User: Fold this.
Amino acid sequence: MATLYPLASLAQIENTPSKQDGIPDDLEEDLRAYGCKLIHQAGILLKQKQVAVAAAQVLFQRFWFVTSMKQFGVGDIGMGALYLASKLEECPIRMRDLINVYDLLLQRASHALVGKSVDMFQYHPMSYFGNTFYDMKDALVVAEMQILKRLGFNVHVVLPYGTLINYLRVLELTNREDVCTKAWGYLNDAHQTPVYALYQVPTIVCAAILLATRQLQIPLPSEPPACWWELFDADWEDVWSVGGSIMRLYRKRTEEEKNRVVGLVNKKDVRSWLEENAPQAGSDSTSAMSVT
Amino acid sequence: MSAVETVPGTSTPSRKRSKWDEDEGEDEQLTYVPQPKKRAKPKSIRPAPSASENVDSSRSASPSGSQSTGSTSRQKPTHSVYVPPRTHHPPIQASRSVYSYERLNQIEEGSYGVVYRARDKQTGDIVALKKLKLEEEKNGFPITALREIYALMSCRHENVVGIREVVVGDTLTQVFVVMDFIEHDLKTLLGTMPAPFLQSEIKTLMLQLLSAVRHCHQNWILHRDLKTSNLLMNNRGTIKVADFGLARRYGDPIGVGGLTQLVVTLWYRPPEILLGATTYSTAVDLWSIGCIFAELLLKEPLFQAQGELEMLSMIFKLLGPPTKNSWPDYSSLPLGKTISLPSPQPHQFRTKFPYLTSAGLDLLMSLLTYDPEMRITAEEALEHPYFTESPVPKHPDLFGSFPSAAAGEKRRKPFNSPTAPRGANLNFLNDSNLSP
Assistant:
């Protein structure tokens, strides 16, 4: 049997490094999701294979269980994760392409931040003699190395798609195209949440099937002793919790919340945000300290 | 991991086991018996399960509920072997520092970097530290090193050299791969051992090699550089496949995106790569195994060619030139039409290996087969009658041991011959040495 992929330990989950630095839970959650969206968008612009994009997102999520967002920005680490995962999945990409794409994405995001409409956006390529490229290249090399180092070079990722197909076959749902598409979509969206660093693949796949079948009102045996998820070695509490994590992605965010995330892509911004919001964060962390 | 127990010809595990081997065999259990994981560092210790909360312990380790909720009275279903308990997964753990090891001596230096022998300061285990060369890298972490680490981590097996961890130095360019230290490599051993391996020993070595390669192929890894200098051997008769520097993952269908032809050391390179194929597969490793088998029998490499053309002509000479029957796809290979074939002639296996049994010869010819489609697989080769006929494979524990060059040991002379009487010879030597 192949080596098992790593999952965050209980201590790592309860007290993430970002939390220890005073970053509130909901902000960390949103920054994780935003970093993964950037990876996804970059993957599409680079015409990169989905396996590499998904693997990058898993590595990205694992990284924040051993590192604080005060130390590294989600933009840089996302870029490093995509670069690394592309090598791991045997479809390497060029540094220059990746850097150009990230530069565009970040420019577009900050354009939207100041309240201008997307149609007005015009990309300004980085100057030929400027330092932008070399700065980003250095950041990329450091990010890739830091991911490897902080994950102990254990970059084994197991993707959920094959398992989904097997389970849908067992449940005789493959003839329902809507179920397959929806469940597949939930698996993709789940990559914006930390669940792939928390739960085993069968649990996550069960959650995707659960959400899809509930939404399409397809009944599956769910009364003890015959519960369909038990067939796939999943526990109800875990499946439910993964489902909750995925659904939280679709929660309505205020404009303020959205802008806050876009403005915190860099570690410098996170640091100055922490300074401004220090009193609140301080009280948060002390209360957390007294609980534990 | 369950394969470990069924592999033929594995030695009894040595008593001195490292902290990294502890979980072997546990995966075979169908039901979950909680055990405190020693592998985890103190930082991530999980609540130690006591016998009474047997059922709930794995749940409390799951992120959802640290406290038992209402429905926990329901019995937790037993896990199938395909989904081990969550607690069996390693935690996310950063690399340790290289200063956890004490450097002993340099073993060898290659293009990839330097290998040192070192001691783990905590456990006292002797390990091999491979320092990667990263200074001149323009494209971040080299993909070849990444493939090697990935392959070693996903191909853990009794007969694959064990990777313990990857440690880092003070700067980002210092990365060391920590592997089990193995005393010998098969090439040096074949060159220095006084007598060749016995048939029974060759069978054991071949079984071990084949089961390691089968394991790699099952995990979608091609080795692409099998040769005797990449096979390590310990003093307990066990060989370990090492140096996954050219290994890579492959998929089904094979060779999507193209594979490089710059693989496998020339003497062990299969004819399809010599003829420019870009969609080769697991069969390339089996050809190399055939060359290794022959080398074990001959005590010297089978094809000692200087260049690729000489290599091809040596293959043509031993196997007879390829025909429409023996290799239907020959003419569709990139270089298939540019090379003029010698006139047809029968193979020379029997004259080259006069003392091999017919079963042994059959295995050798099945490995050294032109058509990669027809070449025997590792799985099939393990079932070959050669391994069940007399003499049967020797138990690894019965292998002799040898002085290890890597550990700096020297072969002791078989006997100390008496020195010549001193007085008489001394004068003679002095006389001759003094004359200028």
Remarks:
- Residues 1-8, 14-74, 423-436 of chain B have pLDDT under 50 and may be disordered.
